[in-house]
Every structure is written in structure tokens, then in C-alpha cells.
Amino acid sequence: ADLAAAVADPARLAESEEAFGAVVEAIDGMPLQYRQVLRLRLVHGLRNVEIARALEVPVGTVRARVHRGLARLRAALPTGVASMAACWLASEGALLAQVRVEVMAHAAELQAVGTGAAGVATTPASPLLIGGLCTMHSKSLVWFAVGAALVLLLAFAMHNPALPRDTPASPTPPMRFRGAAPGAAENERRTTGEAAIHRTEAATPTWPLIVTVKRPSGEPIAGANVHVWAAARGGEYRDTGVHDELASGRTAADGTYRCELDPIRDLTGLNRRSSVLCVSARHGARYADSILALPRVSTPRDFDTEIVLEPAFRVVGRAFDSGGARVAGARIYQVSALSGAPSERFERTGVDGRFDVSLPGPDPGLGLLVSHSGRGTAIAKFPEHTAARATDSTIDVGDVVLEQFGRIRGRVVLADGIGLGGFPVLVRELDAAMLAAIARDPAVLVRPILGNNGDRLQWSDGHFVHTITRSFTAADGSFCCVGLDPDRAYAVSVFDTTMQKISVLARPGDAPVLLTVDRQLLTLDVRDESGARLPGANIAARGFDPASKRAKERAARGFSPEPSVVARFYPTDAHGRRLLLSPFGWDWRIGSFDEIARDEPLLHTATAGIHRVERTLVLREETRFGALDLSVVDEQGKPWRQFGFVLRCLDRELERNHRRLIPPADAVLNVRDLLAGRWQLTTYLGQELFFPLEIHARGHLTQELVVEADTTTAVRVVARPAGVVRLLLHSATPPAGRVWSELRIRIGQDGVDLPYRAYDRANPLQSPSKPRYGVPLVCGTALTPGAHEIAIDAHGYRTARVRVTVAADRCVTEQVEMMRN
After folding, report:
1. Is residue 172 a part of any domain in this protein?
2. Residue 298: which CATH number?
3. Does residue 211 belong to any structural domain of this protein?
4. What is d(CA 698, CA 688) in angstroms, rounded to the nearest whole number?
């Protein structure tokens, strides 16, 4: 009667629905590897073998995921429901949803016939008998009785309001911004839940992690808070909340914290390699973090990392806008006491508007600049004599209210009139010269501007104002940028994937602007074969403009087309999907540029008139890998440690660049997980004499090699003595335009051409591409020690010959006088 009354009572029925929904919601909130198996096992009733076939993973992996998933489920559910988690798996056919439906249907039947609660156990048509018949499958009657009792307990748990209920586990912590560590209280709360999970898992983890926290002196730090999580690879995804919490706790007396990484070991190789392992440590005001790469294979291994905590000031506070709302994602800059300028490095506020940053000692500066492109800007000044405080102290700046001024508002829409949501908008200040150029030719507004497009602030009239800032459109395409100079004009721009600009002129305080983008929006969902999203996968979009002159010329000569643009960084939506904005008529080949995935690109054409397209790119894991052992010796066969190398794949567009590595003591480098196939190896030998010309004292050697699958290829390189020559050409009559025309540099009696590069020591990063008068020319080929005869030819000048003595591991400079014909 009580059971029937519970079903008849709408309040109790609603409570039952809530209990059932809590189970499904808890499953849906789990990491993918657990969510998949528990849904297939509990909701769809598949056996472990069937789940293994569906997911194409070993049965043992499925059993392990079910075991760990159930442990997490018990920790996340109220006690009355959590106690049933194990019994749902006691049978091979009883489904969570079916059991509940049968119990509810039978309770309604009991109400109709007026039977007592005992009828639940004795009525032939009761759900106990149905559940028992469903679960027997040649099982013993003992299992039949156990199944009956469990279903009765499930019915009682769902409908008895007096059953004690625990508070559900706290949801996944909010988005963790780079540089922000959880507080001690948050760590303790999360650790309590995690400890219960880890106790139920294997006693000996196959992927243990040991974190060692030390002071700069090497002294271990006990009691430091350690936080471990996995995040999508790539800086553009770090601040999107795409992460998986793994463990938190405190270091022991020896300064170590230990946990296991088995949950991410169960992921696919693609999922692991498109993620990174993040470890942070905080002790008082000191904070530091470390990022580790995850391996391709899941074989047992140990992970370890060492974190050194430097003396620092800890600054905490909260950011609010002028309306009293908390501001998430605001940038936190340190304001220098010397220059008064904000730092290049920044942190961010959390989703609740709080910030907790560590500033290096001994001087924390004047304060913090808190800036949000759409919510305002403010300075949180430190109290007087803060610089005199000892490091490792905490400064609480309290509530920081952002001030709004200099506002530009508007909306970005596609040509179909619907807003372009979640897309970045660049707002850039225009000087008087640029405004005058735009007045003469409006096309100047959309021409590319060289230089940094990152956020930039400067002090003006008592405020920090944005000269360049970036905002994101809302779902309807609207945007708002504040903190601008009211007396300046700005270009509001959206960049498509080909880096073409769509811009409009705007001034703070004017009417909202409308920016119409005549492009196709391609929303790209990248997943692996199991259906899991891969927000950190390396994706390249190669765009081909069929209307380009170069493409037509190559096609006429029978050559394969070359991409007009190769894009590798994109904005993403809230689900981690890439947003590509393409001109109409372009063809795209979109695929992975990471060797962990197979080269199977998605072909797409931006058809005119279709403004929005959604596509899915499924990446399949590459399995053919080998290894390379590279050893470098000098002319006497001894290890030579001054070297770097670059590996370029000849079968795919892949590269391993290790030009500036620090080789081990034996000068033998082991390169693992190298895609099987043809590679070009370039080894740079000796000291790099001219940065960034890639010219080294002993030159470089290039060779081709074949890497076989599951095989280690050994390569030995001999760094023979050599040196470099630099020439400085003079003439009583400099060449026209001060550029040497038809310049050739030859060596030896055979007149072999020597490659050369112009190198301006005063500005090496902008050395001219042409041989300008007065700029030294560096020969790109290292020469053996000894005397060499070099000939220099230039249009309008006689051939000049010079004898140069090359010294090993050095650069020799020679002056050359050029005589007119």
C-alpha cells in the first residue's frame, strides 16, 4: 500500500523521476571513457563483450572502465541510489530504464486492484518475476532470489522519502585558467571525493605520477597543494575549460605527491596525444606549474615532474563590472613600478570573478591592471609600502570594480542576415595618417597591417586605454568593446580563414555598427573513431583559390595545385568545434598535420549562396611507427654535443624541429614514435654563428633515410672541422640603388657557386633579402680549414678574387674591393 501510495502521490512520483534523472545525469557528467561504457551497460544493456566490439577496444579495458566508472557513480549519487549501482550489473539483461518502468507499472497495477505491499513479492505477474526471468538465462535460483530482492530495494529507494540521501558530489570545478591554482579549501573538498574513487581502483597503478615540489635551494616542500588535470593541447584551447580533473592533494614530508593517471591511460591514442597533462603546485604565495606530454601507447610507465617554487607575492581579489556582476575571463596584468606599463604576461579571473595570482619578488610593482574588452578596465593598487613586505606574503586587493568608458557596439552578421556568433572581432586604433589614407582610398581599411594584433594598452588621460583589443560576438552576433579612447577612431575587423579582412570604421559613442561578412561559415567537428571530440588535435586547412593567377599557371603547365593558404589556428565554439570562414568558391583539404593521425583529409568546397555548413572530420589513429637513434661524433670518433637537427617527412607534410636542443652527454639522441616512411634528416653541426640564418660553424649535412615500422634506424653523423666566411664588398662607385645586381660568389678552380645570405648585425631579424651595399654577405656553406680562393662577380664590375684562410669553428671576415668595368 505504501508503494502504491507513493506512486499515486504526485510529489513522490516527481521525487522518483528526480532520482532516476540523477542517475542518468551523473553518467552523462562523467569523462567520455566512463560515460560510454556505463551508458551501453546500464541504459542499453550490452554485455562487456558486446561493448568491446562496439568500441573496438579489448574486453579487459571495458571491465576496467566499468569498474572505475561505477566507483565514480557511487561517489556522485545519493546513498539510496548509489547502493543500487552494483546490482544493476548483477544481471546481463536487466536495464536501468526497464527496471524502473516495470516497478512503476506494477505499482500502478497494485493501486488499481488494492493489493498490499506483500503482493509485490507474491503476485505472479510482479516485476520481480519479470526481472527474475529476464536475468536467469540458465542461472541458479539463488541469483533469481537475489535479483528479486535487489529490484524490491530499488523500488523502495525510489519511492521512500524517508530513505537518507547524501548531498550529491560537487560538480566539475569551473574552467581553470592558465596560471590560476585552486585554493586550499577547494583542493581539500575535491580530494575528499577523489580519495574514495582511488581506493576502489587497482592497488598498483600502471601509470603512476610522482610530483616533487622544492624550493630553489632544493629543499623539499611539505604540505604544498598539488593539482593535476588533463587539458586539450594548444594554447588556443587552454582557456576554454576543455579539461578533465584527475587528482588533487598535498605533498608529503619528502615534498612528493603521488597519484595515478590510469583514467587517461584508457583513452585512445589520438585522445591522449591531443591532450597535455598539467600539474600545478602552490604553497602559500608561491605558485608554479608544469606541462607534460602524454604518450601514444598505453604500456605501463612512470611519470614524474619536479616543480620549483620561487619566492613570490600572492595577490587575491574579485572583479566586478559597474552593474555589480562578477567578471569572468578578465585579464590580469602586473603594472611595473619603474615604467608604469602593464606586463606582457597576464593571468585571468575565474568564472566567479576571483583571481589568485603569484607575482615574482622582490617588488610586486604598483598594482594590477584588470581589463576585459567588453566589461571595463580598472587598476587595483597595492597598499603603501607593499614593496617593503617580505615575499611569500598575501595581498588582498578586495573587490575591483571595472570602469566602462569609450564604448563601441555593433553586430556581425553573415550575408544571410543571421548573426555570426562566437567569433573574434579585432578593434584597432587608427592614427591620423591612416585616417587620411582611408579618406583617399576606402580600400586601405581592409588591407593587412603588419605587426602584432594582440591586446595592447597604453596610459592616456588618467586611464589605461586599448589601442588594440579583441572581443567575441554573442550568439546573435552582437559585440561590445569598452576601454577605448573616446577621441580616437577605430577599425572593427573580422578575419576570415584566409586572413582577408572585413572591416568597418567606428568611433566610441557613435551608433552601433553593422559588419556584414559575405563568407561561408564552416563549423568543423573533429572526432576520433569512437565519437569522442578532439579539441586539441592539430588540424590544417589548406585552401585553394581556383581564381588565383598562380593556380591557373600551374594547372596550365601540368603541375599539381599548391594551396593559396594553410591555416592552423581557428576560433572555436562552446563545444570545441573549429569555425572556418571561407570566401565562396574556395576548395579546402582539411586534415591532421600530426603524425599520430592518418592522412585522410576532408574535402570541402565553399559553394556560393550557402552561408552555413556543418561537417565532421573523423581522425583515424596511425599505427605504423618506428624510431631513430642519431649519434654525432667529431673527426676522432668522440661524441660531439654541439648539434641540432630537423626531420622532414617526404611522404606527408610533417616536421620534427630540434635545431636548438641540448644533446645528452653521449651525443646520442633517441627519437621515438617516428612515422614509418621516407624522411629527410638535416643535421646542423657546431655553434650557430648567425641567428636566424641557420648557419653553423661546421655547416650542415642533409641525407634521406627510411624508417621502418617497429624498427629502430641508427644514423651516425661525423662533424668534421670547418669554418665560415663572411665578405664585405666595397667600391668607389656603389651600385645603382645600392643593391648588387647579378651577384655570384664562386670557390675553387671549378668555380662552384657558394650560397650566401645578407646579414645585418644591427637588425638580424630583418636582414635584407637582396645583397645591399654595405651589408655583409655570409657564405652559407662551411669550408674546410685552410686556404681557399673565392671569386666575386657583379653586374657592371670586374671579377674580384680574394684568398681566404678558413679557421675551424670560426667565422673569417674578408674585405673585397669591387672595381667598375
Report:
1. no
2. 2.60.40.1120
3. yes
4. 9
- Looking up cell 684568398, which residue turns up? 803
Domain end: 685, 700, 719, which one? 719
Confidence of residue 3 (pLDDT cuts 50, 70, 90): very low
> What value does the mean pLDDT of the chain take?
79
Tally of CB atoms within 10 A around 483: 26
Q: Which of 279, 308, 337 is the last residue of a domain?
A: 308
Together in a domain, 291 and 318: no
pLDDT in tens, 504-545: 999 999 999 999 999 999 999 999 998 888 988 999 999 999
Between the CA of residue 230 and those of 68, 280, 313, what are the distances in Å? Answer: 18, 12, 27
Distance of CA 285 to the CA centre of its chain: 27
Closest CA to 224 of 195, 255, 194, 181: 255
| CA 502 to each of CA 445, 471, 478, 497, 505: distance values in angstroms, whole numbers, following the listed order | 9, 15, 16, 12, 11
**Co-location of 235 and 277 in the same domain:** yes
Given strand 225-232, what is the order of strands in its sheet? 243-250, 225-232, 275-283, 286-293
Q: What is the pLDDT of residues 646-697, one digit of tens each?
A: 999 999 989 999 988 888 889 999 998 999 999 999 999 999 888 778 899 9
Determine contact, residues 189/277, Cβ cutoff 8 Å: no
Round to whole Å and give the CA distance between 35 and 711: 37
In this prediction, residues 76-96 reach a mean pLDDT of 50
Q: What is the pTM of this model?
A: 0.69
For the chain, the C-alpha Rg in angstroms (whole number) is 33
What pairing do the DSSP bridges indicate for beta strands 312-320 and 394-401? Answer: parallel
CB 271 within 8 A of CB 294: no
Which pLDDT score is estimated for 448? 75
566: which strand partners? 542
